[in-house]
Predict the 3D structure of the following.
Amino acid sequence: MVRIRVENGGRLSGTVTLAGDPEAVVAGQAAALLSSRGKVILDQVPLANERVTLGTRFLKQIGAQVETAGTSLKIDATHSLTDQPTHSLTDQPLDNSLAEFAGPLMLRQGKVILTPDFNPRLIDALKILGATVEGQTDQIIVKATNLRGTTITLQEPDPQVMITLMLTAIVASDITVIKNAPHSPAVVALADLLNRMGARVHGAGDRIVRIQGVTLLHGGDVLIPRNQQTAARWLTLAALTAGDLLVDGASPTFMTSLLNHLEQAGNTIVKQATGVRIIGTHYSLPTALSMDDFLAPSLIDQSLMLGLVTFMNGRRSLAGTKLDDLSPALTVLERLGVTPQVEAGCLKLSGQPTDSIKGPVTPLALPAALMWLLASLRGAASIEVEVTDQVARVIAPYLAAVAKQGIQVEISAPL
């Protein structure tokens, strides 16, 4: 267990600079497997990111050459990828941590072997384009038999599904039309890279994307976009603490709904050339937020939005959440004096948080831990939060960044 204490809350102020989007990097790493000549170069890469490191390690294990220079990755996968001692392409199944590589590996090897729990939506995406699937007890074999373009309407604008479709459709015969496509920085960056490699991808960033299949791809380069998911989290935290924060690298294009909601709540949004500045309000107006406005929100994103709604005034609501996942946080709300009610799948809150909560709390689940910490940042509770090591690792980067803003954060092992 790890003990965390936030002293007397505080306002986030100054500037935070965003790193590159790891999802865009992993998509680019996977695309490099499709190059028949020339290197793929990714710039503005967060080299220390766990997902990026995993992708780099995997590329090296299967025989690709990977060089780093500053914040750039140079990948050469043009030669034959043979079975390596550390990773067998033909025998060892690919799991969800490397899901973006499924399509390119299938195209390079003729087949790809996946773990039994591999994301079924990604397998369905491959099947739609003509791949054949053989399910077995301990693995799933997907073969590139007769890939052909078609029209696909995504039930949800999921970036990972979209990336899987793009990395497969670019070599399928005919034209693939994808409707209800996600408005995602990673999707736009991947389309930019693929077009520089010789692909024909049109409309990335819009709701309808068209992909003309080609026979060969070559090397190319792309500037990885800043991480807009992290940008949204910082803007939410700044609003929660009535701060004055410039998020350097934030792009209003990819967070229109969030910025509109923040303005409706009384915050001032200033769109600058280098990013977005938010000047928070001490009296947040009630508004109806919906997670449906956000792209593939994680549990952290849902918890942050719940925290933002909690400290608004009046009767407010949050729709589109996974209530079962957030149930530990709802228990915290009740202790803070806020009454949560569920009506037709929408979470509605009444009552204002009390500032009388003191002493230690020991939440085991991430949503509850985040809610207590958000209450501390807001100044509604003077508490020590004891969390599991796993939860501590998830929130540690944010706590470190908050501490740099001048807010006193103490992290230690419990006595």
